[in-house]
């Protein structure tokens, strides 16, 4: 075996020993999926597909260059105007993905000599952005406003700029951050807030023109397509066009992909029952399972050990349900879990059968 392969083999063996080995699997069409983020059921919607197909014929398969080089497709302008409106912001900017948006925006806002305060549970791509920025990173206990306040009071004065990172809906826990409280603290301590709404359902959002608040999200979950965005003030967006390296040095999102996302956004607003159904499915599941009320369409059931989570997912797979066993490093050590994602496409009966399968195992 070559030195390279021996190195890889040794690392994989170590992951297997910890029940952390992962592999790419083809989805089982015959199972009901509770492990995808197509929360509004729009990825296969005929209108979303038609919008993408029309744009594919009009603009071609790819963006052909960075948006700053080739010229920015008119498809982006329409999508960005719709996103800005949806987020209650002055302007928006589309990136190639939510990951690219995070690793572009964070280093554009802070760097060496600055401070990042990140919720303990923020997504890996916010932390990757933080690392790229070169700023000092401190973590506050999940959703602990006391801890955040202490860090702002004691640490913030030692730095030039300060950026707080959080998520509106936490991806693996399904709970929500108190965004207005965080923004209030931030403004009192001359800090800024970046909130990642990757798991948001694009419900009407009136209270979002908070100063010093940057909103970020993805087009790849509730909108069923692909891409990322940032929304905020016009001057912020103009600044990011000039400084976000993942926008400047990466080819633009294929315009047809953006057109599908735009159609999906319009449907999300015109058909509010979709978000309501995803949420009521989660509520039903929690009440059938005796869990505390769901805060979103994402419901975790924490089993602690990796092996337990894997075995539970396998049992449910055998019963006809695809559920994700989420293990470290995606979640903290000893918090392996089943992550149930409810969507507008699940019927009441699907949810009842899922709960029945869990009770009988
Ligand atoms: C999924 C996710 C992302 C990444 O978005 P992509 O568009 O899939 O790259 C970013 N942040 C959070 C919180 C996520 O859950």
Describe the structure.
There is one protein chain. By secondary structure, this protein is α/β, with parallel strands linked by helices. The chain has 14 helices and twelve strands. α6 links the parallel β3 and β4. The protein is globular and about 55 Å long. The site of pyridoxal-5'-phosphate (PLP) has 14 residues, from α5.
Please render the helix and strand layout as text.
Elements (H helix, E strand, L loop, with lengths): L2 H15 L14 E2 L12 H14 L7 H4 L3 H13 L4 E5 L2 H12 L5 E5 L4 H10 L2 E5 L4 H10 L7 E6 L11 H10 L3 E5 L16 E6 L9 E5 L1 H10 L1 H4 L6 H16 L2 H17 L8 E7 L1 H13 L2 E2 L1 E3 L9 E6 L6 H12 L2
Parallel strand pairs: 1-10, 3-4, 3-5, 5-6, 6-7
Antiparallel strand pairs: 2-8, 7-8, 9-12, 11-12
Please mark out the parts with pLDDT under 50 across 5 or more consecutive residues, or reply none. none
Mean pLDDT: 95
Regarding quaternary structure, how should these chains be classified?
single chain
Number of alpha- plus pi-helical segments = 14
Computed over alpha carbons, the radius of gyration is: 21 Å
Helix content: 40-55%
**Major beta-sheet overview:** 7 strands, mixed
- Could you give the order of the helices and strands? HEHHHEHEHEHEHEEEHHHHEHEEEH
Strands of the widest sheet, in order across it, are 2-8-7-6-5-3-4
What is the tally of beta strands?
A: 12
Ligand list: pyridoxal-5'-phosphate
What key phrases describe this protein's structure?
single chain; 361 residues; alpha/beta; 7-stranded mixed sheet; 14 helices; binds pyridoxal-5'-phosphate
């Amino acid at each position: 075996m070559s030195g390279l392969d021996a190195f890889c083999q040794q690392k994989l063996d170590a992951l297997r020993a910890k029940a952390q080995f992962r592999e790419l699997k083809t989805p089982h069409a015959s199972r009901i999926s509770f492990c995808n983020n197509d929360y509004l059921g729009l990825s296969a919607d005929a209108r979303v597909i038609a919008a993408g197909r029309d744009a594919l014929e009009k603009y071609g398969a790819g963006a052909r260059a960075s948006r700053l080089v080739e010229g920015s497709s008119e498809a982006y302008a329409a999508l960005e105007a719709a996103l800005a409106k949806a987020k209650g912001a002055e302007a928006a900017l589309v990136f190639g993905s939510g990951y690219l948006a995070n690793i572009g925006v964070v280093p554009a806002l802070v760097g060496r000599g600055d401070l990042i305060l990140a919720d303990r549970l923020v997504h890996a791509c916010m932390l990757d952005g933080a690392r790229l920025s070169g700023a000092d990173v401190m973590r506050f206990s999940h959703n602990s406003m006391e801890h955040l306040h202490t860090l702002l009071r004691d640490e913030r004065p030692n730095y030039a700029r300060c950026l707080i990172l959080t998520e509106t809906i936490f991806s693996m826990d399904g709970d929500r951050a108190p965004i207005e409280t965080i923004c209030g603290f931030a403004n009192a301590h001359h800090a800024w807030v970046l909130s990642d709404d990757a798991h948001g359902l694009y419900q009407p959002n009136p209270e979002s023109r908070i100063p010093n608040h940057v909103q970020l999200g993805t087009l790849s979950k509730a909108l069923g397509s692909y891409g990322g965005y940032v929304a905020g003030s016009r001057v912020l967006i103009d600044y990011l066009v000039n400084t976000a390296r993942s926008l400047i040095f990466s080819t633009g999102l294929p315009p047809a992909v953006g057109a599908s996302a735009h159609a999906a956004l319009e449907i999300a607003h015109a058909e509010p029952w979709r978000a309501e159904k995803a949420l009521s499915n989660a509520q039903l599941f929690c009440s059938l399972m005796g869990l505390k009320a769901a805060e979103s369409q994402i419901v975790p059931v924490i089993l602690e050990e990796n092996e337990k989570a894997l075995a539970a997912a396998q049992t449910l797979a055998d019963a006809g349900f695809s559920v994700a066993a989420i293990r470290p490093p995606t979640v903290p050590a000893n918090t392996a879990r089943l992550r149930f994602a409810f969507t507008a496409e699940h019927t009441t009966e699907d949810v009842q059968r899922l709960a029945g399968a869990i009770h009988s195992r």
